[in-house]
What does this fold into?
Amino acid sequence: MSEIESVAVVGAGFMGTGIAEAVAVAGMPVIVRDVDEAAMGRAGERIETSLARAVRGGKLSESDARAARERIELTTSLRAIDQADLVVEAVPEDERLKLSVMEAIAGVVSDGAVVASNTSSIPIAELAQAVSQPERVLGLHFFSPVPVMNLVEVVVALDTNEETIARSRRFVERLGKRPIETKDRSGFIVNMLLVPYLMAAVRMYEEGFASREDIDNGMKLGCGHPMGPLTLCDFIGLDVLYAVCDSLYEEFKRDEYAPPPLMKRMVASGRLGRKSGRGFYDYG
Ligand code: CAA
It folds into this structure.
């Protein structure tokens, strides 16, 4: 069974660039593909900033950061991914978009390549249907910020074969991250536990039961969480969370997964959290 030695990431947003950085820091070459030069420019800046932060925090030497940056190739050409042993799809959480990207990937990758999606809520079984050999498709769900969070959910769909799982697990370990295996069910392990907690905090705030600061401090100082739930909602992005809630609710029809009305209004008003400058808090 061959090891994964080269990687391509399709989608150069916050998650895609984070995945690429983790791969490059682990010593593997990685191609990051997005649709236009503007997206590539933003991706390059994001990677530089994150590597510089790792250097400042003493996680990486200057020369290792430089070497990692040199292993990352940014491109707008889909053809460029055709030699990769693993392709990770990391475009925005929109089912039609993801399906069309999976189809495009399937059109260029080599037969032996593993095809993974970083989706947090779309069934892998659906995405796998866009690929000619669905047995080599699985979910590799990274956590944000990818360079810091040491977990990847390995999502095994109905058709995923053992070889694909084993190669992917070894790849995750090579990144210095811990793989945990889960079936292809909405929310996987982590979001199924995390989302009801976050939504309970949103409802608490919506009802005026406590201030946002007190809700957040309750969990930060009382339970040792690095961020309070409302700060974490802003960090993840309310649009992303809304999509995850919808998918969980659609799958299980349980009230704890239903997005609270306030979330819907905030998404409609463009209050998406940190990335749009305001969410539960203002980020100037
Ligand atoms: N590369 C390597 N290390 C980095 C880094 C980088 N780019 N950026 C930061 N770090 C390191 C720092 O050196 C620091 O390490 P030490 O603790 O050993 O000193 C650590 O990460 C924390 O960094 P900072 O102190 O600079 O930053 P912070 O205090 O603002 O912490 C945070 C930021 C890591 C995001 C922290 O607040 C945290 O862990 N928050 C929770 C994040 C979380 O829950 N993520 C999961 C979201 S859910 C998801 O992603 C799935 C989904 O489908 C929705």
User: Anything to note?
Assistant: The chain has a mean pLDDT of 96. Residues 50, 53-54, 57, 59, 120, 143-145, 147-149, 191, 226-227, 232, 236, 240 surround acetoacetyl-coenzyme A (CB under 6 Å). The chain has two domains: 7-183, 192-276. Strands lie at 7-10, 30-33, 72-75, 86-89, 114-117, 137-142, 151-156, 178-183.
